[in-house]
Amino acid sequence: MKTIDITDPKEIESVIQSCPYCMVGITDDEGNPYVVPMNFAYADGVVYLHSGPAGTKQALVKRRPQVCITFCHGHELVWMHEQMACSYSMKSRSVVCRGRVRLVEDMAEKRRALDLMMRHYTAAPCGYSEPAVRNVQVWAVKLDSLSCRSFGLRPSELGGR
Question: Maximum CA pair distance of the chain?
């Protein structure tokens, strides 16, 4: 089974947009990883996330705003030889990116980010009360780096790569 790098920006965005959630890695005070699933939106090289105004991830990201975000989709168990355990793999595509969290305070920017998040999950029109927008914490993560890979490809699926 092969792993290939994906560099086409449209294909990378397709992987991100096809995911129902992402995994956000934050570092705690002892230097340990703290990874949580989060809902998101992605636009123009920025991942938008949201959380409550307080809690563990909120406290950690205020102290250490550098995060790693992972998107993964298309999980399918594949094998080269069904009777050979070492020939099994999980076919999937993933994007791993890094960036720094900027906590959004501007109400209009919060609403834009929340609109993007809602459009990621539903076509239904959504509104927000003033207290809800004021109390939600929106994170904007401008991506400093990202990589995208496709895993578990059989030689016949490589298409000349």
Answer: 60
CB within 8 Å of 141: residues ≥ 6 apart: 46, 47, 48, 49, 67, 69, 99, 100, 101, 102
CA distance 8 to 98: 18
The model's pLDDT over 148-157, given as tens digits with 9 standing for 90+, comes to 877 655 555 5
How confident is the model over 21-72, as pLDDT tens digits?
999 999 999 999 999 999 999 999 999 999 988 899 999 999 999 999 999 8
Helix H segments across the chain?
A: 9-17, 56-63, 107-121, 130-135
Q: Report the number of distinct structural domains present in the chain.
A: 1
Strand partners, 149: 5, 94
**How do beta strands 40-43 and 46-51 pair?**
antiparallel
Residue span of the structural domain in which 55 resides: 2-157
Please tell me the distance from the alpha carbon of residue 35 to that of residue 61, in angstroms, as a whole number: 12
* CATH number of the domain bearing residue 85: 2.30.110.10
The CA distance from 7 to 12, in Å, is 7
List for the chain the helix, strand, coil content (%; round to 5).
Answer: 25, 45, 25
